[in-house]
Design goal:
With about 400 residues, the protein is of the alpha/beta class. It has 14 helices and 15 strands. Helix content is about 40%, strand content about 15%. Strands 4-10-9-8-7-5-6 form a 7-stranded mixed β-sheet, with helices on both faces. The chain has a 4-stranded mixed β-sheet with strand order 1-2-3-13. The protein has a 4-stranded antiparallel β-sheet with strand order 11-12-15-14, with helices on one face. β8, α8 and β9 form a beta-alpha-beta unit. Bound molecules: pyridoxal-5'-phosphate.
C-alpha cells in the first residue's frame, strides 16, 4: 500500500478524491431502481439521469424473457474461450447484428474495452501508422500503447479535424494507416466529422475505425449509429458498437467481412483468444434486442427518446446555459472548474436528480460538465423537473 502511494499519479488520485469526499459522488451504491428510472441511495429518493441504457431495454420484459428462457437451456456460462469452442448463439447473434447493420458479419467481444484493446494492435504492424484522436476513449489510448510497444508508429490527432488529419498523413511514411476515433464522445455527447475524416483517411491508404459505443441503437436510421449516419454504409470502415449501453446486454462487437478478415481478427486479437465469452443468456438478449431494433416498436421508443432529448436541450438552453451534445442521449451542461462541477452535481443529487459530474482528466482541466443521460423510459415530467432544478441550482451556485 505505502509502496503504491509512492507513485505520483496514484497519490494525486487519492488526494483528489479525499479533497472532494463529500461532493464527488463517485463509487455510489444504489439500493433500489424501478422501471421509470427512480432510484434510492440510502434514504434519498431520486431520478436517475446517469444510465446509458438509453432505450430502457434493461427493464424490457422481452429481454428478461430471452434471458430466462436461455438460462434453463444453456445455464449461466459456457465456460470456454471462443478460441476453443462457441455456443451456437454466438454466431447467431453476430449474424443478427450484421443483418441489422447491413454488413457481411460481426465479431463479438466481452466488452468494447476488450474489443478495442484486442483489435487495434491486431490491425496494425511495424510499417503501419496508427492515428488516434486525443479525445477518443481510454481503451483506444491503451490499445495505442500496446501497438506502440509492438513497434507501430502512433500519432495523436488533435484537433479531430479533416485538415489536421490530412497534414498529418502527408507528413508520414507508412504502408497502411488506421485512424481511430469515437463516434460520439462519451463525456460531451458531441460527434466528430466522420464523413470528412473517412474521405481523408481513404485518400491516404487509411481505414477509419470508429468506436460508436454511444451512437449504436440511438443515432441514425434504425439506430445504426453515427458512422452509418455519416457514411450511409458501414462497408468501408470498421465500426465497434456496444452491446451494453443502448442494447442493455453485455459486450461489444466489430463489423467485418465474412471469411478471411473475420478469421484474422479472431487469430490476432489477444483479448478474443485469451478472454472468456459473452454468456449465452446475454447472447439471447442481444438477439431479442436486434428484434426490437428491427420492429415497429423501435419507432415508438426512439420517437419518445428524441422528444425527451429535445425537451431537455431546449429547456436548459432557455435557462441561458451552454449545452453540448444533444444529438445523442448524452446532453452535457458546461459548468467549469472541478469544485464547481462537483458542487453542481451534489446540489442536484440533494434535490432529487442524479447526473454525473464529469471532471478532469475525463474532460479538460476547467471544462467540467454535468453529464445527463436521457432514457426512453424517463417521463416528460421528470425532464421538466430536472430543468427546473438546474435553473435553481444555477441561481444558487454557478
Ligand atoms: C466510446 C467508448 N468506448 C468504450 C467504452 C467502454 O465500453 P465497455 O464498458 O463495453 O468496455 C465506453 C464506455 O463508456 C465508451 O464511451
Amino acid at each position: 500500500m505505502q509502496h503504491l502511494l509512492k507513485d505520483k499519479v496514484t497519490r494525486l488520485g487519492v488526494t483528489f478524491l479525499d479533497r472532494y469526499l463529500d461532493i464527488h459522488l463517485k463509487d455510489i451504491d444504489i439500493d433500489y431502481m424501478d422501471d421509470q428510472r427512480r432510484m434510492r441511495i440510502g434514504s434519498q429518493e431520486m431520478v436517475n439521469f446517469g444510465s446509458d441504457s438509453f432505450l430502457g431495454l434493461d427493464r424490457d420484459r422481452r429481454l428478461h424473457q430471452a434471458i430466462t428462457d436461455c438460462l434453463s437451456e444453456w445455464g449461466t456460462h459456457n465456460g470456454a474461450s471462443r478460441a476453443f469452442s462457441n455456443c451456437a448463439l454466438g454466431g447467431q447473434a453476430e449474424q443478427r447484428l450484421a443483418r441489422w447493420l447491413g454488413v457481411e458479419d460481426t465479431l463479438i467481444f466481452t466488452s468494447v474495452t476488450l474489443a478495442n484493446t484486442g483489435l487495434i494492435p491486431a490491425l496494425v504492424s511495424k510499417r503501419d501508422l496508427l492515428v488516434v484522436d486525443r479525445h477518443s476513449h481510454n481503451s483506444i489510448q491503451e490499445a495505442a500503447k500496446i501497438a506502440a510497444s509492438n513497434g507501430v508508429t502512433v500519432r495523436e490527432l488533435y484537433p479531430c479535424l479533416p485538415e489536421t488529419l490530412e497534414s498529418l498523413l502527408q507528413s508520414e511514411h507508412y504502408d497502411a494507416c488506421l485512424v481511430a476515433v469515437d463516434g460520439v464522445y462519451s463525456m460531451s455527447g458531441q460527434i466528430p466529422p466522420l464523413a470528412e475524416l473517412d474521405r481523408v483517411a481513404r485518400a491516404h491508404r487509411g481505414l477509419l475505425y470508429v468506436d460508436d459505443a454511444h451512437g449504436i441503437g440511438v443515432i441514425g436510421d434504425r439506430g445504426r449509429g453515427a458512422a452509418h449516419r455519416a457514411l450511409g454504409t458501414l462497408q468501408n470502415v470498421l465500426m465497434v458498437g456496444s452491446l451494453s449501453k443502448a442494447f442493455s446486454c453485455l459486450g461489444g462487437f466489430v463489423t467485418c467481412k465474412r471469411g478471411e478478415l473475420k478469421r484474422i481478427l479472431k487469430i490476432k486479437s489477444n483479448t478474443f483468444i485469451f478472454g472468456g465469452p459473452v454468456p449465452p443468456p446475454y447472447l439471447a438478449a442481444i438477439i431479442a434486442a436486434c428484434d426490437i431494433l428491427e420492429s415497429a416498436d423501435y419507432d415508438r421508443l426512439i420517437a419518445q427518446l428524441r422528444m425527451l432529448i429535445e425537451r431537455l436541450v431546449d429547456g436548459i438552453r432557455n435557462l441561458g446555459m451552454q449545452v453540448l451534445g444533444g444529438e445523442s442521449p448524452i446532453v452535457s451542461v458546461t459548468i467549469g472548474d472541478i469544485e464547481k462541477t462537483f458542487r453542481a452535481g451534489k446540489w442536484l443529487f440533494d434535490h432529487g436528480y442524479y447526473v454525473q459530474s464529469a471532471t478532469y482528466p475525463a474532460v479538460p482541466i476547467n471544462g467540467g460538465l454535468l453529464r445527463i443521460q436521457v432514457n426512453a423510459n424517463h417521463t416528460a415530467e421528470q425532464i421538466d423537473g430536472l430543468i427546473q432544478a438546474i435553473g435553481k441550482m444555477k441561481q444558487c451556485l454557478v
